[in-house]
């Protein structure tokens, strides 16, 4: 069967891959390692989220970011691609962490470090108020998100933004006591995604 692709159009990525969508590493494909609970953030969601971040924070150059459930690293690597000065990718699965280190080395992304660690251990070891943007995308069936929100809040710098994905929409009531408020929210398929401000202390 002939391909229906039109001349000049990019071929779709093969299953098991996502792509960096902006910045200096734009269009770099990222392989999706077979790992339990791994669910990469879709390209269209990342495009929306980074448009939001740039609207709220302006130029992302020079900011610091933490991806506490890195998986493919797509969210953190988008930050690095757009000029972040420091990006920490935390990934518990050994094969995924190895794949991330190989990709970071191939890109020459000197701003990015990969920690093969559990999110709890990583969040307690990192310095308070040290990240401008924190990404939280834990497995949907894990029940971890409320705990991760509470653990991540102290790591946000003043005026920082926390990104959270979930299987249900977050609400002000669900964030009661977390010292966070919703500033943007959207839905794509079964994925709800949110940007949260850290309230002034």
CATH topology: Rossmann fold
Strand order of the largest sheet: 5-4-3-6-7-9-8
What form results from the Cα inertia axes?
globular
Helix content: 25-40%
Mean pLDDT: 87
Structural class: alpha/beta
Largest sheet: 7 strands, mixed
Name the descriptors.
201 residues, disordered N terminus, seven-stranded mixed beta sheet, alpha/beta, two-stranded antiparallel ribbon, 26% strand
Write the topology of this structure.
Layout: E1 17-19, E2 29-31, H1 43-57, E3 64-67, H2 74-81, E4 86-90, H3 94-107, E5 112-115, H4 119-125, E6 131-136, H5 145-152, E7 156-166, E8 180-188, E9 191-198
Parallel strand pairs: 3-4, 3-6, 4-5, 6-7
Antiparallel strand pairs: 1-2, 7-9, 8-9
